[in-house]
């Protein structure tokens, strides 16, 4: 199976894809950015794409919500992984020697507290964590560092200066597994991702929440996103879980008559949040 990720070997997307498809034969297809990955999924060039959507320290990756909507991507699964950040540089260096650190913007955000202790370090966003290690090695940037996984340090034969530099150890990223079409379902899903646009009337969001409440549906996430061309109007990306699939179907039916739009981006098996 061809699996598209943003990033190269050694990136956290690579770890997430390998963990989700464990036991299956997969070929990883790297992409420089999330948009080109979304385009390839939409163009059916991949069996699946894996895309980070939120992190417990840095929060939601808002552009990815926009891409899911723009390319009408379908979510077929999810995986949560523990993210451990490592400061990596050339041999013999310490953090105090560095004047620049490269990484993916989400990784830099996750290490903000550690980096605040080194105000001399200029933070520079790069395509992905692992590729930033490769780049400082290939360009021989001797006073530069990169933030990535331990695996990336090993892969590119660079030195690990500090481990677990994320601001909080409960650092998890949720990745979505995506296709251009829904899979034929061979099991009962436990979770759904919806896009809802309410009427612009008082209490219309409360009505939506009331429907979920009445049907015993639990919300795990609600994310408002601007609607293009309608300044200060918002769509809600809502993730829900249930005990009984029929309750969810009934809630969806009730929702349809109450809102301007309800779109199902995916119904899938919910991922386990790691405990380490
Ligand atoms: O740069 C990487 O290694 C990635 O896989 C990207 C990414 C992200 O998009 O959030 C994945 C997980 C971590 O949260 C940090 C970075």
UniProtKB/TrEMBL annotation:
EC nos: 4.2.1.51
Q: Which residues form the ACT domain?
A: 193-269
| Biological pathway | Amino-acid biosynthesis; L-phenylalanine biosynthesis; phenylpyruvate from prephenate: step 1/1
Has keyword Cytoplasm? Answer: no
Instruction: Give the record's keywords alphabetically.
Output: Amino-acid biosynthesis, Aromatic amino acid biosynthesis, Lyase, Phenylalanine biosynthesis
Keyword Disulfide bond applies: no
CDD domains, per this entry? ACT_CM-PDT, PBP2_Ct-PDT_like
Q: Name it.
A: prephenate dehydratase
All residue ranges annotated as the Prephenate dehydratase domain in the record: 2-180
The record's catalysed reaction(s) read:
prephenate + H(+) = 3-phenylpyruvate + CO2 + H2O
Species of the source: Reichenbachiella carrageenanivorans
> What is a single Pfam family found in this protein's UniProt entry?
PDT
